[in-house]
Amino acid sequence: MLIFAVESSCDETSLCLMKSNGEVLSHKIASQEIHNNFGGVVPELASRSHLLNLQSLYKKCLTESGINPGDIDIFCSTCGPGLIGCLLVGSTFVKSLSIGFQKPFYAINHLEAHILSPTINNKIIFPYLCLLLTGGHTQIYLVNGVDNYSLLGETKDDALGEAFDKVAKLLNLPYPGGPAIEEIAKNGSIKSVLLPHPLEKSNTLDFSFSGIKTAVNLYVKNNIINQKIKNNIAASFQHKVTEILKHKIKICFNKFNNIKIDQLAIVGGVGSNKYIFAELKKMCSNNNVEIILPPKDMFSDNAAMIAWTCIQKLSLKNFQEGLHFKNDPRLQVGIKK
Ligand code: KG4
Ligand code: ZN
Predict the structure, then answer these.
(1) Which one, 38, 85, 137, 244, has least CB within 10 Å?
(2) Which atom of ligand 1 is nearest to the CA of 177?
(3) Does residue 40's CB lie within 6 angstroms of at least one atom of ligand 1?
(4) Closest residue CA from atom 14 of ligand 1
């Protein structure tokens, strides 16, 4: 069986042709550099770029894989959450193909695709904990199985990726801010700038990152900023948010001491941060928990995770075709415990 998937929820246009065993025949990810000068994604520019990218990437996918579009069995695309214009451009493109070739279309939840992304390259032991760290979401799930997720906690204000991007903007670093902060933090000292640890004394699994961002803002306003100080701010910020993540995972380990949890998945764009990974790994090793990650090109937004999620869900009896699914910018996954 051949699956064709498109991801276009934000500023990456991505297409993937995948076999039902997970073998990738072609996978294209076009990042939109047009937003770099704005310090964030401009929705209208993102929608227009998807429109420009889709046709040429589609042709490239077919040429690279040697696949005739008539041989594709299943069409799917991200239908939420995300920017509504971007979702509409991508899903309308794929829905049109599905109608034209008279093959089924399935709507995929972007967050669910991130959650399931490490199941393509790891031997999974359910239930696993999943730390979902993207530009728009920061959530912790207990993943009991495909289509069986419990939302344990989430951010009450900024998402972690958003906080990385905003701090980067304060330091005059390019967008997206995460990789830029990770890079300069290597030359900084982690304890040089005092930052708050919101909700430190609480047992909640919810997050709050806006106070840290405000503290960085104040520090930048009250000090003369040179490269050394920028490095120190980046290192202190990255360290503080890592401490917060570690604290939450510790709470999870205590909360679930009656359920055996063998794996912690770290997914989404921020999940590619090597400092965060190394620190969480140390903590997890002490608790005999394995960290599982998606393949390198499946941290940030990509269509391979969309195709893979479609394949996983097709094995469930209740997965309905989605030609009439209404794109939902706030589509959710899981039920809060
Ligand atoms: O998952 P993703 O590609 O898109 C969303 O679904 O939102 O995540 C994008 C976010 C951006 O905020 C970006 O700054 C952040 O992931 N990011 C990182 C790193 N690479 C990307 N944050 C910290 N460290 C990184 N290395
Ligand atoms: Zn994403």
Answers:
(1) 38
(2) 14
(3) no
(4) 178
**Pocket perturbation via mutation, ligand 1, pick of 7, 10, 164 by most ligand atoms within 8 A of CB:** 164
Phi-psi region of 180 (alpha: psi -120 to 50; beta: other; left: phi over 0): alpha
pTM: 0.96
Beta bridge partners of 16: 5, 27
152 lines ligand 1 (CB under 6 A): no
Q: What is the pLDDT along the chain (337 residues), one digit of tens a residue?
A: 999 999 999 999 999 999 999 999 999 999 888 887 787 789 999 999 999 999 999 999 999 999 999 999 999 999 999 999 999 999 999 999 999 999 999 999 999 999 999 999 999 999 999 999 999 999 999 999 999 999 999 999 999 999 999 999 999 998 889 999 999 999 999 999 999 999 999 999 999 999 999 999 999 999 999 999 999 999 999 999 999 999 999 999 999 888 999 999 999 999 999 999 999 999 999 999 999 999 999 999 999 999 999 999 999 989 999 999 999 999 999 776 6
- CA–CA separation, 86 vs 98, rounded Å? 19
Compute the half-sphere exposure of residue 80: CA atoms within 13 Å on the CB side of its CA. Answer: 11
Token pair of 216 as six digits: 């960085």
User: Can you list the alpha helix ranges (DSSP code H) found in the chain?
Assistant: 43-65, 84-100, 110-116, 160-170, 177-185, 210-222, 227-255, 274-286, 304-314
> Which amino acid appears at position 15 of this protein?
L
d(CA 228, CA 168): 15
H/E run at residue 27 = strand 24-31
Interatomic CA distance for residues 86 and 138, integer angstroms: 21
The number of helix segments (H) and strand segments (E) in the chain equals 9, 11
